[in-house]
Write a structure and sequence with these properties.
alpha/beta; 5-stranded mixed β-sheet; Rossmann fold; globular
Length: about 220
């Protein structure tokens, strides 16, 4: 989406679903006006996690004179510690006091030049997984029977030949459940805006706290 040099608060995410999920969740907790130019945080999409983790990507953004706060949200996939370690390696020159491991509540650090860096590794900075694992815990209690039926249907589909790989099951579970909502097939960001996913779920509290503290919102 490019860089908005008029906004000192920047966030880098992996893809469109991450962008709209963060937007849908956080607009339930802070004032987030319509229109990208009015956004309290400018969200930029990297082409992939690997691009974001390439040497120089994050450090270059941190060195931009207009950037005061940079947040980075990535999926853990199979290695939350490894993902954080690669971010730390890029950023240690600018933030020499970075901890060896990411805190469970997400990373927020500030250096002597008053630049701030925040990191959140989905789903919870400690577990393997992805955005969809985080979002699964925002399914309202009253929809839990439908969730269980959706996940059972995915498992059965794989048993009879569906080609969905095991590593993609969290996505398959979530999007099957979303396909059974009114209207079917909504994206997670829309589901959060419409409260089909619960932005005030207890499981969202830690992320919301991290985001608000990082950007002083």
């Amino acid at each position: 989406m490019g860089t908005n040099k008029s906004n000192p608060k920047q966030l880098v995410v992996e893809g469109f679903q991450d962008l709209y999920s963060v937007h849908g969740l956080m607009r339930a907790h802070i004032d987030w006006p319509d229109g990208k130019e009015n956004a309290p945080v400018w969200i930029e999409i990297g082409k992939s996690a690997e691009e974001i983790l390439e040497p120089g990507y994050i450090s270059l953004k941190l060195k931009e004179p207009f950037t005061e706060t940079l947040g980075v949200i990535l999926d853990a996939d199979t290695s939350p510690r490894g993902r954080y370690g690669r971010i730390r390696k890029q950023s240690i020159e600018i933030f020499p006091d970075l901890p060896d491991d990411i805190p469970l509540g997400g990373l927020i650090v500030e250096n002597d030049d008053h630049k701030r860096l925040g990191v959140w590794i989905m789903p919870d900075n400690a577990s393997e997984g992805c955005l969809e694992v985080f979002l699964r815990h925002l399914v309202p209690n009253e929809s839990e029977p439908i969730w269980q039926h959706a996940t059972g249907s995915v498992v059965r589909a794989r048993e009879i030949g569906a080609s969905c790989r095991e590593c993609h099951l969290p996505k398959a579970f979530l999007y099957t459940w979303l396909a059974w909502q009114d209207e079917p097939g909504q994206y997670p960001g829309t589901a959060l805006t419409r409260r089909i996913l619960d932005p005030h779920a207890v499981s969202a509290a830690s992320f919301v706290k991290w985001f608000r503290e990082l950007y002083a919102l």
